[in-house]
Specification:
Helices cover 3% and strands 36% of the residues. By secondary structure, it is mainly beta. The longest helix is centred in the N-terminal third of the chain and has 9 residues.
Length: 404
């Protein structure tokens, strides 16, 4: 008989191995797997053949549009219609009419053979097209993307929200807002203390050394004033107040000469102030140099005034080469100084006469930080100190402070 007739007879149920039902090309009954006529393991059918187009394909899986029963399997074409609903497709499948039968195909977002379709979790298998800054939520047959807090967009594309620029931050009115990726930070301004969301005025007058002996300390928002019993020079009477015009930001150098926002009065000059400030003066005319070394080792001085990445965004106001200062290094309110130790040095570049035991050069350095009372460091040189650097072993080393 022909191979086609022999297959037909065998599939009708003749015992495998009888005359005429031996293996044909493509069969492998000795393997105990697909093609041995026994449905087992991962097989959904087994008609004893390794050929397709008869309902059971070469991998022993039921072909689309067929139904198979028995072992060896007997396969017949499915009957039904998409139009009248007799086709046995899953509710989440698409039905397509074929010649005398139908084909079921799972809809997008589902996987399966069409008779059974299950939802694909695009979030779990990383096939969702959500932005890295979005949250993916699986839905039946699909997924949704929603930008995380601090970002805006459609979920597929998310951009950072600048809460400081849009005034959606919750920083205190006396705090500086700094935008960060997906969020922001708040830091109380100089003269205030707190966590940035809540800032309270520092009562500098609570510090016994805030004013000189015999002076009356008056606390003001973010600042304070010292009023002596008598208004002696260098202080002046401005209106009804006796003020030190060398340090009063409302009367800097002279009455009613107020410093601008982000400035403080140092030695009668309005100089930049902010989140961190170093000011140096000396006792006789000459060229002294204030040098500040940041935690990353960057120098801020007359050769590198800033502000730039090369100064960690700190800056020097002025280089005094013939007077008594001040020289001032500061970080503006919109700049955040790096955290860590700062080395502070004062060098005596050019004085006439040069520093000696009989002609010393005395210096004073004041450090101002948010939430803390000012610190003043004093000393003197009896010999020249110049190295062009600043660390704990430098000739002009004064002190080390830690920010914040």
């Amino acid at each position: 008989m022909t191979d086609a007739v022999r297959r037909f007879v065998c599939v009708l149920g003749l015992v495998w191995g009888a005359a005429g039902c031996g293996p044909t090309t493509g069969e492998n009954p000795s393997s105990g797997g697909c093609g041995d006529g026994v449905v087992q393991q991962q097989e959904s059918c087994d008609d004893g053949l390794h050929v397709g187009g008869d309902g059971c394909d070469g991998a022993c899986q039921v072909e689309q549009g067929w139904q198979c029963t028995g072992a060896p399997s007997r396969c017949t074409r499915q009957t039904g219609s998409c139009a009248d609903g007799s086709a046995q497709c899953d509710a989440n499948a698409l039905c397509t009419e074929t010649s005398g039968s139908f084909v079921c195909t799972c809809k997008p977002g589902y996987t399966g053979d069409g008779t059974t379709c299950t939802d694909i979790d695009e979030c779990a298998n990383n096939t969702a097209t959500c932005d890295a800054n979005a949250t993916c939520t699986n839905t039946v047959g699909g997924f949704t993307c929603a930008c995380k807090s601090g970002y805006t967009g459609d979920g597929t594309t998310c951009t950072d929200v600048d809460e400081c620029a849009s005034n959606t931050d919750n920083c205190d009115a006396n705090a500086t807002c700094t935008n960060t990726a997906g969020s922001f930070t708040c830091a109380c301004k100089v003269g205030y203390s707190g966590n940035g969301v809540t800032c309270t005025d520092i009562n500098e007058c609570a510090n016994p050394t805030a004013c000189a002996p015999n002076e009356t300390c008056t606390n003001t928002p973010g600042h304070y004033t010292c009023t002596p019993a008598t208004c002696d020079a260098p202080k002046k009477t401005c209106g009804t107040a006796c003020v030190d015009t060398t340090s009063d930001a409302d009367h800097c150098g002279e009455c009613d000469h107020a410093c601008g926002e982000g400035q403080s009065c140092v030695e009668s000059l309005c100089l930049g102030s902010g989140n961190l400030q170093f000011s140096a003066t000396w006792n006789r005319p000459g060229d002294a140099d204030l040098i500040v070394s940041t935690p990353s080792g960057k120098l801020i001085w007359w050769e590198n005034l800033g502000p730039s990445a090369g100064t960690d965004h700190g800056q020097m106001d002025r280089d005094d080469t013939s007077g008594q200062g001040p020289e001032n290094v500061f970080w503006a309110l919109d700049k955040t100084p790096p955290s860590g130790p700062y080395h502070v040095c004062v060098e005596t570049a050019l004085f006439n006469p040069s520093p000696s035991p009989s002609t010393p050069v005395a210096y004073s350095i004041t450090v101002r930080r948010p939430g803390k009372a000012p610190q003043t460091f004093t000393g003197s040189y009896t010999s020249s100190a110049y190295s062009g650097t600043c660390n704990s072993s430098a000739a002009g080393y004064v002190t080390t402070i830690t920010y914040p």
